[in-house]
């Protein structure tokens, strides 16, 4: 469903586009995506179209987005362009400085320019004590899959048992800042330990939100770029029967009533033509 929606979004005039994989001389790039691509050097950036979908579907217009694992600037810039307020929490000062520079350049004239706070997200209960968020949205570090710094407070430097405890704490504190009858959304993927076994990071994320008092409400699958996966997967499967993975999990949670949360977000336009030729199979699963 999200891949179908992305194809529809890429063809919209004046809409946000998915910049990853495009070149700077591509005439279909809009100004925002061109700037993001320039800043990222064409490497992995968070999917702007996924941002747009999540914000439009799961937050009210003009609402406030709280991001406890901000990383780069994309989620803040997209929020601003959609008329949402955004507060991102990020440990690394150099990343915050880069985000603020990009945000100022791209969103300086917007009604709600994005804001980034530099600091340990374990302190989000004090740094954002007066925040009443309409949505919690983030893409956390995938354990130690990619180490972002040598700061001992950086989750990506921790062994998984320590990571898990801090991760649960941050999610709880972020969700405490979330208004009742509101949604939270995390984009995560499974990670293997040093022995090659899955650590159940997706399952731990679900449990962290449940421990924070939220309900597990939706899951969607984001198909990611295949790239060199066929080459790597062949070797991995032959030696250890490990299947290649080319997706991420989009997990949606609700604090309070899903119906009331949906009402707060307002109406969503659904292009019925996307379902042309698709036959219904089975019953409605809710």
Describe the structure.
The structure is a single chain. The protein is an alpha/beta fold and 286 residues long. It has one domain (2-266): Rossmann fold (3-Layer(aba) Sandwich), CATH 3.40.50. 37% of the residues lie in helices and 17% in strands. The protein has 10 helices and 7 strands. The chain has helices at residues 2-10, 31-40, 48-58, 74-81, 93-107, 124-127, 160-176, 201-211, 229-240, 258-265, and strands spanning 64-67, 85-90, 115-118, 133-138, 178-188, 215-223, 247-255. The protein has a 7-stranded mixed sheet with strand order 3-2-1-4-5-7-6, with helices on both faces. Helix 7 links the parallel strand 4 (133-138) and strand 5 (178-188). The two termini are 16 Å apart. Residues 1-24 and 39-43 have low confidence and may be disordered.
CATH topology: Rossmann fold
CATH superfamily, by name, is: Vaccinia Virus protein VP39
Mean pLDDT: 83
Number of helical elements: 10
Q: Specify the overall morphology.
A: globular
- How many β-strand runs? 7
Strand order of the largest sheet: 3-2-1-4-5-7-6
Radius of gyration using CA atoms only: 19 Å
Note the run of SSEs as H and E: HHHEHEHEHEHEHEHEH
Beta-strand percent range: 15-25%
Low-confidence stretches: 1-24, 39-43
The CATH class designation is Alpha Beta
